[in-house]
Amino acid sequence: MFSGSIVALLTPFNIDGEVDYQSLKNLVEYHIDAGTSAIVAVGTTGESATLTVEEHVKVVSKVVEFADGRIPVIAGTGANATHEAITFSRLLNNSGIAGCLSVTPYYNKPTQEGLYQHFKAIAKVSAVPIILYNVPGRTGVDMQPETVARLAKIDNIVAVKDATGDLSRVEKHRELCGEDFILLSGDDASGLDFVKLGGHGVISVTNNIAARDMADMFKLAEQNNYAEAEIINQRLMGLHTGLFVESSPIPVKWAAHELHLIENGGLRLPMTPLSEAGQEVVKAALAQANIS
């Protein structure tokens, strides 16, 4: 269930800044048709930081409704306050999600013991499997493999999404966490190499606009056909990097709107529209990827 090409789904807004549920439904259909392995709703790319609690829960619930059992849905439930992350877990326990993705607490920079206690407390109330999410570039804290290994001993903590781009951690996590623990990349540029080294898949931003290519690439990887997978990967490499030319999801929202995947490319402050220079970078990456 937690493997292959998983999309870190963007949350579309209409021109008034409200969630555009029709575009959201269209995105779910797009990923089902393309063969995406699973959907993460309201993670970082889904602008969890600017949604209200009510919007957060509704977006996840709507994605589950639109998916209608045809694709697993993973809910972003992380927060920097443990009690808030617990609240999200409780609110979504019976929503039909297949699991939750819980990010390391941002801004307050807990110790490794604080991280352990944070996720241990969440695991006590979660009725679904938990994917740990380590993204120090966003949060200011780096969860060490030894802490992940401690958490892997808790029954319903089943995976880690590692967005450090440090490929040496694949072997380290495997050694410390055991063969059954699921390893997911959160870095598109190194995602295929991550799987080559023993990872199970990627939670991807690129997948938002290149879903079929990403699905095909990781299916080839599952068959150990890395030569053909690498051909796709190199064609998409400009997107893997260009979609981060400005803070995500600014570039990917602009691209999704250009490709008519969503009606409006709007964001909520403090996110602002993609600059003209950024647009040129993404245009060039789309051309390289042969996506129009």
UniProtKB/TrEMBL annotation:
Catalytic residues (positions): 133 (proton donor/acceptor), 161 (schiff-base intermediate with substrate)
InterPro entries reported for this sequence: Aldolase_TIM, DapA, DapA-like, Schiff_base-form_aldolases_AS, Schiff_base-form_aldolases_CS
GO process terms (BP): diaminopimelate biosynthetic process; lysine biosynthetic process via diaminopimelate
Record bears the keyword Magnesium: no
Annotated site residues (L-lysine inhibitor binding) in this chain: 49, 80, 84, 106
Pathway participation: Amino-acid biosynthesis; L-lysine biosynthesis via DAP pathway; (S)-tetrahydrodipicolinate from L-aspartate: step 3/4
EC number of this enzyme: 4.3.3.7
PROSITE patterns: DHDPS_1, DHDPS_2
UniProt xrefs under SUPFAM superfamilies: Aldolase
Similarity-based family: Belongs to the DapA family.
Protein name listed in UniProt: 4-hydroxy-tetrahydrodipicolinate synthase
Species name: Vibrio inusitatus NBRC 102082
Source lineage: Bacteria, Pseudomonadati, Pseudomonadota, Gammaproteobacteria, Vibrionales
